Amino acid sequence: QVQLVESGGGLVQPGGSLRLSCAASGSDIDINKMGWYRQGPGNEREAVAIISRGGTTDYLDSVKGRFTLSRDNAKNTMSLQMTSLKPEDTAVYYCYAHATWSGINYYRAYWGQGTQVTVSS
Fold first, then answer.
1. Residue 83, beta-bridge partner list
2. 21 near 93, Cβ under 8 Å?
3. Which parts of the chain register pLDDT below 70?
4. Do 117 and 18 form a contact (C-beta atoms < 8 A)?
5. Could you give the CA distance from residue 116 to residue 50 in angstroms, rounded to a whole number?
6. Which among 24, 106, 111, 113 is placed 20 to 30 Å from 37, CA to CA?
7. Do residues 10 and 93 lie in contact, with contact meaning Cβ atoms separated by under 8 Å?
8. pLDDT tens digits, one per residue of 79-114
């Protein structure tokens, strides 16, 4: 299958920065779009930032200007640079990829296990 592994979460003070990374692996994987979702306490999972194969990005309104999403298609990796973090950014962040691999003939959603981001003073 496709495995997504996140890294970079942690505890940060308001106004601070964190960089989340996601690495995808598997047999002959191909990723169409990918990005990050998050789920805060008592909230539904929401898309934070999505990036297309060609690099077009779409951000949640509340993170525009603060978060930057990038990807390396050759390495099947992705990073989310988060700056000016706010307490409301506190959530479990999940790597997402719409992808395929050699064992199937369709694209589907794959998810990482999640990494905790806590913004607190």
1. none
2. no
3. none
4. yes
5. 19
6. 106
7. no
8. 999 999 999 999 999 999 999 999 999 999 999 999
Six-digit token pair at 78? 């992705």
- How far apart CA 41 and CA 74 sit, in angstroms, is 35
The token pair that represents 68 in the structure block: 């930057």
CA distances from 101 to 11, 27, 107, 110 (A): 34, 6, 8, 11
Contact at 8 Å (CB) between 51 and 24? Answer: no
Angle formed at CA 57 by CA 20 and CA 25, multiple of 5 degrees: 50
* Bridge-based pairing state of the strands 115-119 and 10-12: parallel
Cα Rg, the chain, nearest whole Å: 14
Torsion of CA 67, 34, 40, 81, to 10 degrees: -20
